[in-house]
């Protein structure tokens, strides 16, 4: 019989020091292969868009063609009469009193009612027996709009006569913002920045613009909703947080949560873009209305409207320093455009403000960050979450300050680098390693790549490989006008959910004997979005339970929440939960052994016992019994919650508070070659040094760092969603016009990994996924500035910014 205590909870911050060693093959510290890796590279992996159900229908969403307008009428008659159409739904067909959803603020309508607030907002749904039938029927729906004034920037949002994007706000932020079109405001004030400025020998200021970036995951939004016999629904979907989806979906359907059963399907990337709902509620509504399974898959055009993006930002910074380079003060104002709905904007504001100073020790600061409501596309979570925009600005400032002081830019950073024990502007003390100066030393000390790598010599003389030049295969130059530049940057990112959020995860671990071998099964609701969590969970189980056979149960809502696969938190928090539950299972196995076999050897009562190689052994290596002999036909099944140390909300006036649980650091050196005549850029190398605490899977760690670096490269030189400033309509919703780095754009990315343990974290690990996305962007910009002498205060850098044309 299985022993299965349900979701016991351990005190927050319970120590997670390793107790089992790492002797089991495939345990932590090894580069074990991903179970889904081969399937993905061979094209055999089943993504959510591949799902199929007998007799299923296809769902389609009709979206608004304007950004801000009143809906005066909707005529669905012709669409409903189309052969093959089973249902057409509008706002009036929603079954429950709850008709809005949202991560924190429930301000997003399931279907537009009365007005639309952004280009591409969902207005109606169609279910039909073929996807093309559904699309054609949706095109027959007639909607009459009356245009409203469009809010597109801070000036139009906060003007005295500004149209309110959301009238009658009642959320808890409204009492703390100076205008209803501001979602949230967070100041951080420490010391006296004005007085400190008077002591500065040099002051530099700068205005910076960060473009709207898309997560650009390759797997489009998709899912399959299947009505169940009990009146509920089963939803198979690609998402980042099953239980958050469930909390938002069930009230809109008018169902209790236990009647909405969710299972994770194959996820083709996320990067924050799947934290918010997309097609989940829509598919469920159509399935429940028709009584048939309904599949929805966005095409690429619709995907650009179906998820949030990275907040574009305008940032004003001021830094002061003494003549020897010590920072005296920092002031900044950060304006983030959250678009039509709140999404994660409040939390992004908290990150942007609390991390705005970067990885530097500055005693006197005056920081303000706000997020706007506008009629631009909604913006929310994306890798780096508010810290990316700030890092771009403060690192440009450090280069500007170094130039004004005639100092080496790396030496200036090292002189002011924070370290363990540094007091942050929020009043929180850094209580784990913060090797900022060392990371900078490492990237600077790395040998530079050879000059003019496009040249090669042969018997007939020298030849040019245009692939190594700016412009690549377009053959725009053979080296004429090409100038090399080198730039550096370092960033500061928090790990995990912050500001007092109850950040926990749940893991169920089962140990049993199958065919004479002990087998562990790990069941969590963690969304595997490509980060490799399923690999690490198996490694943890092998390490803690001493078994070679580990099964990872599909993620679903039949186990407690694992939180979101975001904020670089899953290995820390869900990994911590798996480790904690494994420890509980191990202790239960040893209890069973003592009960059954304790009389056969005194070591059962006196020695420290471990599980290794499928056996119970003493710490001296003596084998007492096999796990199979201990368990026999008994199974141990334990589900427990695990929490990291608690955080606290930032003070709404001063920004003081222990808001974050952990910090991560990465530094980059970019080497670029720029065709100064045509404005074309080739990034030759983008070296990174990062402290990861403990590399549980070194190969996966390297992949995460290189992936984050590449995403930062993209926003530096090519990625931006373009929105018409007059109409707020998206201009480039396709991968034809929204460019992302390909293999030809991606440079060599050498990685230098430090492992300085954080004693508060499981195995001493540190969240790694986001930090490299911060500093790669400003490093590339710094290198282009170094090559051209231009200021370049906007991302992405386009050819016309370099040529001035």
TrEMBL record:
Residues 1-35 are annotated as: Disordered. It comes from the Bacteria. Gene3D superfamilies: Aldehyde oxidase/xanthine dehydrogenase, a/b hammerhead, Aldehyde oxidase/xanthine dehydrogenase, molybdopterin binding domain. InterPro entries: Ald_Oxase/Xan_DH_a/b, Ald_Oxase/Xan_DH_a/b_sf, Ald_Oxase/xanthine_DH-like, AldOxase/xan_DH_MoCoBD1, AldOxase/xan_DH_MoCoBD2, AldOxase/xan_DH_Mopterin-bd_sf. Residues 42-149 form the Aldehyde oxidase/xanthine dehydrogenase a/b hammerhead domain. It holds the Pfam family MoCoBD_1. This is Xanthine dehydrogenase family protein molybdopterin-binding subunit. It comes from Streptomyces flavovirens.
């Amino acid at each position: 019989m299985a022993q299965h205590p349900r979701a016991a909870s351990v005190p927050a911050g319970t120590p997670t020091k390793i107790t089992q060693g790492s002797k089991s093959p495939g345990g932590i510290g090894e580069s074990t292969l991903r179970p889904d890796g081969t399937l993905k590279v061979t094209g055999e992996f089943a993504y959510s868009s591949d799902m199929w159900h007998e007799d299923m229908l296809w769902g389609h969403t009709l979206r608004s063609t304007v950004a801000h307008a009143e809906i005066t009428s909707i005529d669905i008659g012709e669409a409903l009469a189309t052969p093959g159409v089973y249902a057409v739904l509008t706002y009036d067909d929603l079954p429950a009193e709850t008709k809005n959803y949202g991560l924190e603020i429930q301000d997003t309508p399931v279907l537009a009612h009365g007005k639309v607030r952004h280009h591409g907002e969902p207005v109606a749904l169609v279910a039909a027996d073929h996807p093309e039938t559904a699309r054609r029927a949706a095109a027959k729906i007639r909607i009459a709009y009356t245009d409203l004034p469009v809010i597109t920037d801070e000036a139009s949002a906060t003007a005295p006569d500004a149209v309110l994007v959301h009238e009658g706000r009642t959320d808890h932020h409204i009492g703390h913002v100076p205008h209803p079109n501001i979602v949230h405001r967070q100041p951080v004030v420490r010391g006296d920045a004005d007085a400190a400025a008077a002591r500065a020998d040099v002051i530099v200021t700068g205005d910076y613009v960060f473009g709207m970036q898309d997560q650009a995951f390759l797997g489009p939004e998709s899912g399959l909703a299947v009505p169940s016999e009990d009146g509920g629904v089963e939803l198979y979907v690609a998402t980042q947080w099953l239980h958050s989806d469930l909390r938002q979906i069930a009230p809109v359907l008018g169902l209790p949560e236990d009647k909405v059963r969710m299972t994770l399907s194959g996820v083709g990337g996320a990067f924050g873009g799947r934290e918010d709902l997309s097609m989940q509620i829509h598919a469920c509504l159509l399935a429940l209305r028709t009584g048939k399974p309904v599949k929805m898959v966005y095409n690429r055009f619709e995907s650009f409207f179906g998820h949030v993006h990275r907040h574009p930002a305008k940032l004003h910074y001021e830094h002061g320093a003494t003549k020897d380079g010590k920072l005296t003060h920092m002031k900044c104002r950060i304006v983030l455009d959250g678009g039509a709905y709140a999404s994660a904007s409040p939390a992004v504001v908290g990150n942007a403000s609390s991390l705005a100073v970067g990885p530097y020790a500055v005693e006197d600061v005056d920081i303000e960050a706000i997020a706007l409501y506008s009629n631009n596309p909604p913006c929310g979570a994306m890798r780096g979450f508010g810290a990316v925009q700030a890092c771009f600005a403060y690192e440009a400032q450090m280069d500007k300050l170094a130039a004004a002081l005639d100092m080496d830019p790396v030496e200036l950073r090292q002189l002011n680098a924070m370290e363990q024990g540094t007091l942050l502007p929020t009043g929180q003390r850094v209580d784990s390693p913060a090797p900022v100066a060392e990371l900078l030393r490492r990237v600077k000390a790395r040998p530079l790549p050879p000059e003019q790598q496009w040249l090669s010599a042969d018997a007939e003389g020298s030849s040019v490989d245009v692939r190594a030049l700016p412009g690549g295969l377009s053959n725009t130059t053979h080296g004429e006008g090409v100038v090399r530049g080198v730039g550096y940057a370092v960033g500061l990112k928090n790990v995990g959910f912050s500001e007092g959020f109850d950040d926990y995860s749940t893991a169920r671990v089962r140990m049993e004997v199958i065919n004479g071998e002990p087998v562990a099964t790990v069941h969590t609701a963690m969304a595997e979005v490509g980060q490799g969590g399923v690999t690490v969970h198996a490694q943890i189980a092998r390490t803690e339970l001493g078994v070679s056979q580990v099964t990872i149960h599909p993620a679903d809502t039949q186990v407690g929440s694992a939180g979101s696969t975001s904020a670089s938190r899953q290995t820390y928090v869900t990994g911590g939960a798996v480790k904690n539950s494994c420890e509980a299972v191990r202790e239960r196995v040893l209890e069973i052994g003592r009960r059954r076999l304790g009389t056969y050897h005194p070591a059962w009562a006196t020695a420290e016992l471990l599980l290794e190689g499928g056996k119970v052994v003493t710490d001296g290596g003596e084998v007492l019994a096999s796990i199979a002999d201990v368990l026999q036909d008994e199974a141990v099944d334990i589900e427990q919650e695990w929490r990291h140390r608690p955080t606290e909300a930032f003070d709404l006036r001063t920004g003081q508070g222990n808001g974050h649980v952990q910090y991560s650091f990465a530094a980059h050196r970019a080497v670029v070659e720029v065709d100064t005549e045509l404005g074309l850029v080739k990034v030759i190398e983008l070296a990174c040094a990062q402290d990861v605490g403990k590399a549980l899977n070194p190969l996966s760690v390297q992949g995460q760092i290189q992936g984050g670096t590449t995403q930062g490269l993209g926003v530096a030189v090519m990625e931006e969603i373009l929105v018409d400033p007059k109409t707020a309509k998206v201009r480039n919703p396709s991968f034809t016009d929204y460019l992302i780095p390909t293999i030809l754009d991606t440079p060599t990315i050498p990685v230098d990994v430090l492992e300085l343990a954080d004693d508060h974290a499981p195995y001493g690990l540190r969240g790694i996924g986001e930090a490299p996305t911060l500093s790669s962007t400003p490093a590339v910009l710094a290198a282009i500035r170094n090559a051209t002498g231009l200021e370049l205060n906007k991302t992405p850098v386009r050819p016309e910014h370099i040529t001035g044309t």
